[in-house]
Amino acid sequence: QVQLVESGGGLVQVGASLRLSCEVSGGTFSTYQMAWFRQAPGKDREFVANIDQSDRTRHLDSVQDRFTISRDNTKNTAYLQMNSLKPEDTAIYYCAARPYYMYDYTYWGQGTQVTVSS
User: Fold this and answer.
1) How far is Cα 67 from Cα 81, in angstroms, rounded to an integer?
2) Alpha-carbon Rg of the chain, whole angstroms?
3) Within its chain, how far is the Cα of 90 from the centroid?
4) Residues 6+ apart with CB under 8 A from 69
5) Tens digit of pLDDT for each residue in 23-64?
6) What span, in angstroms and rounded, lies between the C-alpha atoms of 1 and 16?
7) Whole-number pLDDT of residue 85
8) Angle formed at CA 114 by CA 111 and CA 118, multiple of 5 degrees
9) Among 9, 29, 56, 107, who pairs with 97 as Cys (CB 3.0-4.6 Å)?
10) How would you class 2 by CB atoms within 10 Å of its CB: exposed for 0-12, middle for 13-18, buried for 19 or more?
11) Are 51 and 60 in contact (CB under 8 A)?
């Protein structure tokens, strides 16, 4: 079965950087569109960024100039580079995978906590 494992979260101060990783096993990573979502306490889950099989990316407007999604098909891993972190970035970050033949994200990781302290 397909498994997604996130890592790289933590507690940082305002302005710091973090790089989240999402390693995928049990499937064909190169055929998946990959995405990052986040959920802050008391709020709905929101889309952060995605990257398709051709490395085309899309980012949430509020993170466009600070976050960058990428992927390495040789390592079956997607990344989210987060710079200039703000307190409002505090959330659990989830990665998700959408096979090319599916309309929605089918596989999800367990999440990694990012806390930005002021």
Assistant:
1) 5
2) 13
3) 13
4) 34, 35, 36, 48, 49, 50, 51, 57, 59, 78, 79, 80, 81
5) 999 989 999 999 999 999 999 999 999 999 999 999 999 999
6) 36
7) 98
8) 165
9) 107
10) middle
11) no
User: What pLDDT does 1 receive?
Assistant: 92
- Report which residue type is found at 5: V
What's the token pair of residue 11? Answer: 């507690």
Model pLDDT, residue 62: 94
| 78-116 per-position pLDDT tens digit | 999 999 999 999 999 999 999 999 999 999 999 999 999
Edge-to-edge strands of the sheet including 18-25?
3-7, 18-25, 77-82, 67-72
Average pLDDT of the chain to the nearest whole number: 97
4 neighbors 24 (Cβ within 8 angstroms): yes
Nearest to 68 by CA among 19, 9, 6: 19
DSSP state of 43: S
